[in-house]
Amino acid sequence: METAGNSIPFGYTPVWAEKDKYQVKSSANLEQRPIRMGLIGLGGVALGKHVPAIHRLRETGIAVEIVAGAEIDDGIREKCERLHGLSCYRDFREMLATEELDAVEVLTDPGESRLQALTEVVDRGLHVLVEKPFLFLGVERLDESIARAREIVSRAHDKGLVVITGFVKHFSPPYMVAKQLIEAGAIGELSLVAIKMCQGWSRHILLEGQACHVLHIALWLAGPIAGVHAFGINRFAEPSYPYDNIVVNVEFDSGAIGTFYFNSSAPSLKPWERIEVFGERKWLAIEDGFSVSLHDTEEGPSKVWAPVMPHTLFFDEEFGGFAGEISALVEAVREGKQPPVTGKDGVDALILASMVHSSIRERRYVSWAEVVESADKWAKERV
Ligand SMILES: NC(=O)c1ccc[n+]([C@@H]2O[C@H](COP(=O)([O-])OP(=O)(O)OC[C@H]3O[C@@H](n4cnc5c(N)ncnc54)[C@H](O)[C@@H]3O)[C@@H](O)[C@H]2O)c1
Which of 45, 49, 90 maximizes ligand 1 atoms within 8 Å of its Cβ, making it the mutation to test the pocket? Predict the structure, then answer.
């Protein structure tokens, strides 16, 4: 591993640099009993990202297989059967009752169908990878979304199940490099975190659906958040989501502060993203989810980590982190250990999103504790 400055790790070994993983020539690992997966929801992210990532993992010798899928859309189901040879069910309950599965990926849209699927999967004692946001029943039902998500996570925990929230950036090289650098003390004690995430899909669920990726990264890199003060406007979007531009000032438990801005009225479908983390006279930036620059001396030069391979190769499967998150699920299931990203991380991002909504609505500072209390109140009153 290369180093920057005083033996600070500044490297990442991509799978394509590990020759025996890049192209596995033997079928040795495939002798192992595969982890048997079922997929619920076979839409864009399932077929565009998760299915290719699982094929990629199998290619690299990881014993995992897709046993069946469930999808309510007849056309998609037929396509999956013909194109992928997948055994497909209309009703996910029938799939769960019929197939012998170890784990299920819940890849539906994040509302009621996800709630039903998560509940049944956990009740049946199956491990789960759920796409982000963990659960989103609507802006006006955030207390309920948080309370129900917490119940599911707690029931899964009691049953000893692995739960991963699909915060895919956690498994993507630039974010991993930044985390390594921060943990190794490359920028010292953190003081300021600045995050931009702007994209152009005006109907998007801006906070819970898109910015949740970087809300998680903020919590991962800089730790728990005490409170926020936010502003939001809806200037151009359809009224399906209350805001298309949001700014958030953040206070971390550590005493560090942050400022985030998100928008869904940028000119592109591509999320324009920049994350800057400052310490004492040192700072680093993760640029557009691609490279990391470390500025750790007054004289310079700054150090830049960028992938040496064209990142289009295996882009989403490897560099985007999809193979990483599914491989983390397989490893956690096989070895009975906690994955790097859990169900609790999914709930935490929801709590943070809810704090931002309350702050915008009520035009005041909102603390983490009061949002948790409000979700607890919803849970108590329901009983
Ligand atoms: N991690 C990422 O980068 C990333 C990227 C895209 C989407 N996502 C997330 O993945 C989820 C799905 O997004 P998408 O773009 O694939 O949406 P999509 O609408 O293309 O796919 C969802 C599919 O689920 C199916 N479905 C709904 N209810 C069902 C049920 N009860 N049983 C079986 N199938 C059901 C729908 O028919 C649809 O085909 C969302 O939560 C989204 O935020 C994550």
Answer: 45
Ligand 1: which of 39, 77, 96, 108 to mutate, most ligand atoms within 8 Å of CB?
108
Q: For residue range 203-233, what is the model confidence (pLDDT) as tens digits?
A: 679 999 999 999 999 999 999 999 999 999 9
Computed over every residue of the chain, the mean pLDDT equals: 91
Residues 22-46 have pLDDT tens digits of: 566 566 666 789 999 999 999 999 9
Residue nearest to atom 18 of ligand 1 (CA): 43
Cβ-Cβ contacts under 8 Å for 206 (sequence gap 6 or more)? 241, 243, 244, 246, 262, 263, 264
Residue whose CA lies nearest to ligand 1 atom number 31? 113
Among 86, 109, 269, 270, name the best residue to mutate to test ligand 1's pocket (greatest count of ligand atoms within 8 A of Cβ): 109
- The letter for the amino acid at 241 is Y
Domains of the chain: 3-168 (3.40.50.720), 170-310+343-362 (3.30.360.10)
Instruction: Give dist(CA 135, CA 115) in Å, integer.
Output: 7
Band the pLDDT of 328: cuts 50, 70, 90: very high
Task: Find all residues with CB under 8 Å of 137, minimum gap 6, and list them.
Answer: 111, 112, 115, 144, 145, 148
Query: Residue 1 has what pLDDT?
Result: 42
Q: How far, in Å, CA of 106 to CA of 108, rounded?
A: 6
- State the pTM of this model: 0.94
Taking the C-alpha atoms of residue 349 and residue 209, their distance in angstroms, rounded to an integer, is: 10
Using a 6 Å CB cutoff, which residues line ligand 1?
40-46, 70-73, 76, 92, 107-110, 113, 131-132, 166, 168, 209
Ligand 1 atom 3, closest CA = 168
Phi, psi of 144 (to 5 degrees): -65, -40
- Could you identify the residue written with the tokens 């609505």? 361
pLDDT tens readout for residues 147-167 = 999 999 999 999 999 999 999
DSSP secondary structure letters along 247-299: EEEEEETTS-EEEEEEES-SSSSSPEEEEEEE-SS-EEEEETTTEEEEE--SS
CA of 40 from ligand 1 middle (Å) equals 9
